[in-house]
Every structure is written in C-alpha cells, then in structure tokens.
Amino acid sequence: MDLQNYSLVSEFVLHGLCSSRYLQLFFFIFFSIVYVAIVMGNLLILVTVISDPRLHTSPMYFLLGNLSFIDMWLASFATPKMIKDFLSDQKLISFGGCMAQIFFLHFIGGSEMVLLVSMAYDRYVAICKPLHYMTMMSRRTCIGLVLVSWITGFVHSISQIAFTVNLPYCGPNEVNSFFCDLPLVIKLACIDTYILGILMISDSGLLAMSCFTLLLISYTAILVTVRQRSTGGISKALSTCSAHIMVVTLFFGPCIFIYVWPFSRLSLDKLLSVFYTIFTPLLNPLIYTLRNEKIKVAIKKLRNRHVTFN
C-alpha cells in the first residue's frame, strides 16, 4: 500500500496531560527533574556495571546493566517531547514522528518485558538450583537472553507498525494523550479498524499477560523454595520479591489495562501511561540496584577512582 496515496494527515495534535497553564508549568519543572534523575541514575548503574569486572561478569548484574540501558530508552522515546510541549500552545507531532513513537514504545517495551522475565529466571536458578547456577546462567546464556529480549521487542514492534503506518489517515488528527499511543492512533484511520485494532492490541496484551504470568510463577517458586529451606530467610526473600513485584506491577499493570481493555478509553489512561513510561524507569535503579550492597560498593570505588584520577 502506497503511503502517499492513502495518508493525507501530515501531523497529529497531542492533547498532552492537561490544559491548565499553571499545571503545565509545574509539570514542566517536575518531569524535567524526574527525566534527569532517570537518565543519570540508569547511566550511573550502567557505567558501574561495565567498569567493575566482578559485576559485568556476573549474570545478575549483566542483566541489570541491560535493564538500565533499556530504561533510559523507555524514558526517552516520548518524555523529552512531552516536557517541551508543556511550554507550547499547540502540541504537534509529524506523521513520521508519531509512527516512530509507536515503534519505539513497542520495541523497547516488549524488550523490557522479556528482559524482566529473564531476570526473574536468573533469580529462580540462583535460589532454587544454586549448584547448577554457573552452568545454567553461563555468559552465552545471558547474551542469548538479552538477544531474545531485543529480537522479541523488534518483531513485536514491526508487527504493530507495519499495519499502523499503512492505514488511511484522512480526517481527525487529535490524539488524547502526551504521545502517540497505538489504540488512540488507529482509531483515527478513515476505515473501520475495529477487528484490526483488536488483533493488533491483543498482540500487546498477550505479550504483557504472558510475561507477567511467568514473572509471578518465578517469584512464587522462589518464595516457596526459600520457605522450605530456611525459616529465617523467608522475610528477606519476601522483602526482595515484593519490591520487585511492585515495580513489575507498576510496569505491567497499566500495559495490561490499556491493551486488554483498549476500547473503554478513560482519562485514567494518561496517568497509567505515565507510570510505565516514566516512573518505572525511575524506580528500577532504586529497587533493583541502589538497594544492593555490591552496587553501592562499586559506585564508591568508581567515585574514589575518579577523584584520585583528577
């Protein structure tokens, strides 16, 4: 299908988070601080893991480093434009920019979902099968898990954007969100996309539900194993797993809600989108790494090495 023959819409209008001028100024300052914190926090984790030989050779921290890398991209596909739009009277995005946001959201989001499952699998092997840990989580296995996450995200995203970009957009061009979200954009096409929309959005919902279910199974198996082996260790394991499950729920919950019930559009969807595109990348460094003693020690060594070098 020739895009030029069918798509007459050259740009879309984003409604943003709110219409109040005072709130937009507040959000500009707030999200600017949050975005800088996300980038600096995840970059610090990534640099720390790469610079410390004991960390980047460890399967757990190798996966954590990749999570930080993905989180920086997840927070960057739409947040900088959203921040800029808070100071703009009209929030416009080109057709190509809109399609790019949809592509990167599903590419990065799909990759993160699979990577989180890989991290849960790593913890499951470490706790439930400790004698086989180094064999089951070899360097080749870790690289394979990361590649699978990126490939899954890419294939998932291509399957979404290939249909979306070729739909005929010739009329409405207002998107009631702060970025181009798939369920909202396909509703603007000039043909009946109900069936196609269900198929495309079900793809995202199925991926989210499958990964979320695997995560819950992994953490449940970990808690059961720890409880059977050690009475005293259950509280620590429960604390760790509950923190991980909290972040996972904040990421998967909004995705599942938006893509499993996509046609009951609520104003709450904007808030849910903020959670999995902005707040989750902020929480991941805090929950997964900055609470970890090895990461803290490695950061201190990196800081001392930098101070000494200067």
The figure for the number of domains is: 1
The CATH fourth-level homologous superfamily: Rhodopsin 7-helix transmembrane proteins
Count up the helices.
Answer: 13
Helix-strand pattern? HEHHHHEHHHEHHHHH
Verbal overview:
The chain is mainly α and 310 residues long. The chain has one domain (13-305): Rhodopsin 7-helix transmembrane proteins (Rhopdopsin 7-helix transmembrane proteins), CATH 1.20.1070.10. Helix content is 76%, strand content 3%. It has 13 helices and three strands. The protein has a three-stranded mixed sheet. Helix 8 runs antiparallel to helix 10. The longest helix is centred in the last third of the chain and has 36 residues, at 194-229. The chain is globular.
Q: What does this entry show, briefly?
A:
The protein is mainly alpha-helical and 310 residues long. The protein has one domain (13-305): Rhopdopsin 7-helix transmembrane proteins.
